[in-house]
Write a structure and sequence with these properties.
151 residues; alpha+beta
Length: 151
């Protein structure tokens, strides 16, 4: 060390040891400051609560950003219900019906869920218009459907 200072000289044992401790700590701090928020932002999952009952589908939000979306479905009705999602430009009440069920192929149809039960469904959704509905016979036609938008 130089006389009157506490700064180690680069060529001393203390200077080398200090560099071995300080440089990794600085690198870790930079990685945390820059890398972690970027990594977390790219893996964000949006959660949407879904309540189903006779004869409604009620999402906690009407619109989400594109990406990974987890639907947390709860049947609060007295009958069993399914949860289906379809991407379509058709109006929410204009989906084709055959044998009292929506005849379009959904992205996914889960259930049926007994009264008081539920489940989760995670999908990677692209921007567009969607319809969330129950595809138990007669339920879509009875009004158990809602428009949903992904931006």
């Amino acid at each position: 060390m130089r006389k009157g200072t506490r700064t180690p000289l680069p060529d001393t044992k203390e200077g080398v040891r200090m560099r071995k401790l300080v440089l990794p700590a600085v690198a870790a701090a930079i990685a945390v400051a820059i890398g972690v928020p970027i990594a977390l932002a790219s893996f964000t999952v949006t959660s949407v609560g879904i309540t189903e009952k006779e004869f409604k589908v009620t999402p906690s939000v009407q619109s989400v950003k594109a990406g990974s979306v987890t639907f947390r479905i709860k049947n609060r009705g007295a009958l069993a219900h399914t949860f289906a999602i379809v991407k379509t430009s058709l109006a929410v009440g204009k989906l084709p019906v055959k044998s009292d069920r929506v005849s379009l192929r959904p992205i996914k149809d889960v259930g049926p869920f007994k009264p008081g039960k539920g489940g989760t469904l995670t999908l990677n959704l692209k921007p567009g218009k969607y319809v969330l509905y129950c595809n138990v016979k007669g339920h879509y036609s009875a009004g158990q459907r809602v428009a949903f938008t992904v931006t």
